[in-house]
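Colleagues,

Please find the record for the two-part complex below.
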Amino acid sequence: MWGFDGWSFSENPKPYAFRKGERVRVTLVNDTMMSHPIHLHGHFFDLTFGPAGHLPRKHTVLVAPGGKVSFDFTAEPGDWAFHCHMLYHMHAGMFQVFAVRPLDGEAVR
Amino acid sequence: MKAALLLISLLAAPAAAQTMDHTGHAMPATPPPAATPQAAPAPMDHEGHAMPTPADTLEQSPAGAPPVAEQPTPPPSAPNDHAADRYYDPAAMGRARGVLRSEHGGATMSKVMANLFEYRPQSGADGYRWDGEAWFGGDINRLVVKTEGEGASGEGVEAAELQLLYSRAVTRYSDLQVGLRQDFKPGRTYVSLGVETLLPYWIETQGALFLSDKGDLLGRVEGAYDLRLTQRWILQPRAELNFAAQDMPRTRTGSGLSTAELGLRLRYELRREFGPYVGVSYERSYGRTADYARAAGRGVDDASLVVGIRAWF
């Protein structure tokens, strides 16, 4: 099976939830034998290595087999696709949603 | 079965928000319309932010990696609403999400593959051999058909078998396969219990036990590795060992290790799905199986050149 955290998207997992405007560190751990270029829609993120101010700013990061990558991003309101950009991996289930709330004009919950 | 699992851990923290300044974002002074419960002390409205130029970044950045929060902030609970419902018909979006889900992990797939399909020019009658499989199903449960056999031109098929298996992914890289194996020359039926595993570094292995309707027990272990010389040139070492728990004179098989085959095949993938190859194959009989072969006037070992096609769709 293919997915994030043990879930294929077809199994209807809960989206990853974030608060609007928060600065979040996301850590990706690849415990497969394949490389996965992980892509987040709607944002640019900063990889957390290198000196501050020189962090690579990207929307897709390749996570090597057995590798670990962290990035920081500032959450924008909305539902954003988050997936492996090898599309046959994505269509096999390696897809998720970053759900950032509150939406514009919406009260805090 | 291939497995993929990616873990994501989320660490959100007020202190981490400070890194925004270090990375040179220009922050609008306006606070967001509503403060979030655990929002950063200097909350930012990302929509209006200006991208920093490299020069900005250089000037404003102190050295060192950005700080990380000491205490991770737990993530908020997952929302039940959908952002797109604000702009499109919720019923239409609901249907679209259903399609999206089914197309991202819910598919039923199939594959038909000729792993070996080869010709063996030899002194005397040239030989041929095939080894293929087809499967149908999803990630976890599959129906698998395997076939292999060999023969010689002018002499017909010497050995052929067909397996019909139910395959279930029992661990991340292993499929357990149970079913029936039917041999045609000589005819015999077996119950089959096998495992296919992808070992680290992409070594494909499989092993199986076969119990015949005559009570004979056989075993088989296979392994292969695709060494990628280039994107298209692939050298494949391959080994197959056959075992038997008892002497089986009718099939000229002795107990213990009966036969082994070592192969080295170089293929060129014209397409991923279509790769002609050339190689060498060395087969040898051992123990009582070799005795049976000698008694039948056959050699116990045989090296041959092979020319074939590996293809799938």
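The helical segments of chain A are 87-91.

Comments are welcome before we finalize the supplementary table.
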